[in-house]
## 1
Amino acid sequence: MKGVILAGGTGSRLWPLTAVISKQLLAVYDKPMIFYPVTTLMFAGVREIAVVTTEAQQESFKATLGSGEKWGIKFEYCVQSEPKGIPDALKSLPISFKNEPIVMILGDNLLYGMGLGSSLAGAFNGTGALAFGYPVANPSEYGVVELDQKGNVKSITEKPVSPKSNLAIPGFYFFDKSVHSKVLELVPSLRGELEITDILKMYKSQSALRISVLERGTAWLDTGTVESLIQAGEFVKVIEDRQGLKIGCPEEVAFREGYITGNEFLKCINNAPTSSYRDYLISVAVEFGLSVI
Ligand code: TTP
């Protein structure tokens, strides 16, 4: 399975913050926003990740993330020429991704929670689609899923005026390889975009859509508005200050999950400038008995 991070779009709701910087490169507290979805995909066991961006911003993403080698993964970069919707971005994936199941995450989504890492890795069996449900106070702003008592999907509606449930669908999806042909069948919605909910409906019509309701202790934050961006930053700060552990730190995840060796982790530390981020990496190395020079 390969990973996909959608980091295109216009970020208009965050303008003028996004006038020259992509939303997904803005700070969420102490690191670029895209580090959070990168680490979510690493926890899901993915080693190859396509980063879909606008043409104008591709170099900035390359400068921020690099080839992935230092984190034991591989990034491929591709361009979505116009922001024509979330599933449209899948059309720009490299050939090597087009015959593969994928796990896709929106570059402005932050998922955090107990056991999320290990449970994600085994969540998808490679067939159909797996998406998630998350109770929110404002379902009208999201794609909403209605489940029957057995947990089967009754309906999916994009930004409903009168939501049939309080379960929003986070921007994190597992798809089998048929997703690549499905996106070619989509037609734009009234707002002129290809809609991810239409892809989910296609899987539903084949009885191939599974929704897993995220546990209460899980946090799902999106960072598309000034308010939600600040909230996400505050959330990360509170957890990190309290626990003395970082959320969304790719070097640490790579090392703890065995993607890189101790020596490679030490190399990450040596290449990092003096900063609180570097100090944190050093504290992880010390915990593992590695000697930092
Ligand atoms: P949105 O928040 O729906 O759109 P946006 O990022 O352009 O922001 P705004 O609505 O404020 O203009 O996008 C969710 C995520 O999906 C975000 O990470 C950008 C990404 N995306 C693409 O990569 N391509 C697209 O065509 C769209 C619509 C979104």
## 2
Amino acid sequence: MKYKELGTTGIQLPEIGMGTWHYRGGVEPLKAGIELGATFIDTAETYDSEEAVGEAVKGIRNSVFIATKVAPRNFKAADLIRSAEQSLKRLNTDHIDLYQLHWPNYLLPIAEPMAAIEELVRMGKIRYIGVSNFSVCEMQQAQAVLSSNKIISAQVRYSVVDRTVELGLLDYCRQNHITLIAYSPLDLGMHNMRKSDRNDMLGKIAAEAGKTRAQVALNWCIARDVVVAIPKANHVEHVRENCGASGWLLNPEQLKMLDQISFRQRGALESAGWRLARRIGQRFGKSI
Ligand code: NAP
């Protein structure tokens, strides 16, 4: 497993971590990943997987980096502090390594959750602050109201078939030494990826490189300097395969071939539409 520095923290993060949305694998897949060096686990208060993560790291807590998230409905200061306390309890730990705002809350000024999150840092309950699904502008606004901390990570959707972040956010992360945590790096499953990869470029390169399609897709993500990926796998064999995506490099010719896969890239207008839909959802209590 290869490692990358998390922001400018000096912490070395494995370039392949483990996601746990819809995770139903129990402790074994997580333990298998940790043994192979995937010592970075991502969860959230809404995933119903924090207990499993806590169970998997029992006895080895300090060798695993745990990231969790607070949902926008809990961004009011008292609610955010309570959410963190509840996550700590479910994770069975006394600190969260990375606490992330899961999505922007369009109904509340960003200063409120950022002040509460800084209070948690002062209390020693969380070590680092991250955001998820924030645009560049939203990240800048969030950073501007922090008094003595830096946003060190941005968790966003990124894969060989969804390259929206290449329209600006990836460069912003590079320029500001922010780690980009790529979620859904397998497009929620290889069957989805296959739909965009009609000429089976992943299969061709996998055969040439002696790897699997999933390993090629993950390696493509982590070939970018500031990017680490967090595939989710309920199955131990998938976890092992995913860990094998690190430690080697696709050659420039293979990277060029992967550019032939049709990929999504949400432009400014479409992104604005998504945000508007989320804002309306939050207004009427219909989204997280
Ligand atoms: P993903 O990791 O792209 O895909 C997960 C699917 O891929 C599962 O069905 C899994 O199967 C399958 N899979 C895993 N490894 C495989 C392999 N080697 N070969 C073939 N299939 C494989 O999707 P995701 O869960 O959406 O994203 C990963 C993580 O990112 C989440 O778990 C979560 O932690 C995070 N995330 C964050 C947000 C956010 O808003 N911040 C949103 C989505 C996701 P099995 O489970 O059967 O092994």
